């Protein structure tokens, strides 16, 4: 039964998602007097972080791939809590755009999901960095579960919550879901999606009811030590979608093959039973826009042949061409899928992956 905190003798009925809540971003200086809930409050749940640094002051994620400028992004990571507050103020801190060397791509839109319905995008104040308040007006005092999904390409630190006087935060039972790790490059991280919930890993994890850790990194090439990093996450299932940057950046095929063998060997050393689904590079819808893309079939073939030769159990190759049609209408730039393209990938991939206990 849902909890209700009756401030009056009647409870306000829930409204349709489009009108049930609204969000406003404001600097810290505009914060009124509220109940302060610290980041390490045990009533707040964290999901999808590869590595979480949690204290009374902040919750900050780190994806442990030290040579990537996207290391401190946490695409698709979730912060969950249940409250009967009529409004909630999230305190988030956004990185400076010039704070990470080699960083060129940012996408700062998070999503607030209320009782399982994507309701409100949460945005960085234009041009601002550092702490800011994102106020969500829920317009009623029914108890709700609120989940914040962090953006796919921004470094965001959670500093806590502020609730109105008299509101409550309720303990929630932890859910045990199969852990899904999605490894890859910018396509897996989610580049060109309008919001993180449009990316194929988030769509897939939601459809399968899996706990996603997104380990996609913009511009990433296949790197053998990444296999050991992923194994440390103890996934119940791993998908890899990588290789297009190896091709476009002209990594020699023999080195690509060696890196593939090294990656699988490193992963299998610590995760011998985890099923791996190796997705070969997706089709490029506009090859003329992407220099060297005419060689992509050679990388697909090399991956398929090498994995067949290794003959590891619980390792299956999925042709990327089976997951999305080479139609420019499904891509934002001929290489990165758009929302419709990500949906097609997630739907087709979900049908190919097993159910997990």
What does this protein look like?
With 357 residues, the chain is α+β, with helices and mostly antiparallel strands. It has 2 domains: 22-170, Galactose-binding domain-like (Jelly Rolls, Sandwich), CATH 2.60.120.260; 179-352, SGNH hydrolase (Rossmann fold), CATH 3.40.50.1110. It is 20% helix and 26% strand. It is built from 7 helices and 18 strands. It has helices at 186-189, 200-208, 226-231, 244-248, 253-270, 296-310, 339-352; strands at 22-27, 35-37, 45-47, 52-54, 59-61, 78-83, 87-94, 110-114, 117-122, 130-137, 144-149, 156-163, 169-170, 179-184, 211-216, 237-241, 276-279, 315-318. The strands form 4 sheets. Strands 3, 6, 8, 9, 11 and 13 form a 6-stranded antiparallel beta sheet that branches. It has a 5-stranded antiparallel beta sheet with strand order 1-10-7-12-2, with no helix packed on it. It has a 5-stranded parallel beta sheet with strand order 15-14-16-17-18. A hairpin with a 2-residue loop joins strand 8 and strand 9 (117-122). Helix 2 (200-208) crosses helix 7. The protein is globular and about 65 Å long. The model is unreliable at 1-20 (pLDDT under 50).
């Amino acid at each position: 039964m849902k909890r209700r905190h009756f401030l009056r003798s009647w409870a306000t009925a829930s409204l349709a998602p489009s009108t049930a809540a609204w969000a406003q971003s404001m600097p810290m200086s505009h914060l009124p007097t509220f109940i302060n809930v610290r980041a390490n409050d045990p009533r707040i749940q964290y999901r999808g972080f590869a590595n979480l640094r949690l204290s009374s002051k902040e919750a900050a994620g780190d994806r442990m791939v030290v040579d990537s400028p996207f290391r401190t992004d946490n695409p698709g990571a979730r912060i969950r809590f249940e409250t009967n507050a009529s409004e909630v103020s999230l305190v988030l801190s956004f990185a400076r755009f010039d704070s990470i060397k080699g960083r060129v791509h940012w996408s700062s839109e998070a999503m607030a999901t209320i009782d399982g319905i994507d309701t409100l995008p949460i945005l960085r104040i234009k041009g601002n960095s550092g702490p800011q308040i994102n106020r969500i007006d829920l317009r009623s005092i029914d108890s709700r579960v609120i989940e914040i999904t962090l953006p796919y390409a921004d470094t965001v630190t959670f500093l806590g919550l502020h609730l109105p006087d008299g509101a409550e935060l309720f303990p929630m039972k932890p859910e045990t879901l199969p852990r899904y790790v999605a490894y890859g490059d910018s396509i897996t991280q989610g580049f060109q999606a309008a919001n993180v919930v449009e990316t194929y890993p988030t769509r897939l994890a939601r459809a399968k009811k899996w706990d996603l850790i997104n380990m996609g990194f913009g511009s990433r090439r296949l790197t053998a030590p990444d296999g050991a990093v992923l194994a440390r996450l103890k996934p119940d299932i791993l998908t890899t979608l990588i290789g297009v940057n190896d091709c476009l950046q002209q990594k020699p095929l023999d080195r690509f093959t060696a890196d593939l063998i090294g990656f699988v060997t490193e992963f299998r050393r610590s995760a011998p039973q985890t099923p791996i689904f190796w997705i070969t590079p997706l089709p490029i819808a506009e090859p003329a826009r992407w220099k060297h893309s005419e060689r992509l079939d050679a990388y697909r073939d090399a991956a398929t042949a090498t994995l067949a030769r290794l003959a590891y159990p619980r390792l299956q190759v999925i042709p990327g061409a089976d997951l999305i049609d080479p139609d420019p209408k499904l891509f934002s730039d001929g290489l990165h899928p758009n929302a419709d393209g990500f949906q097609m990938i997630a739907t087709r991939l979900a049908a190919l992956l097993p159910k997990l206990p």
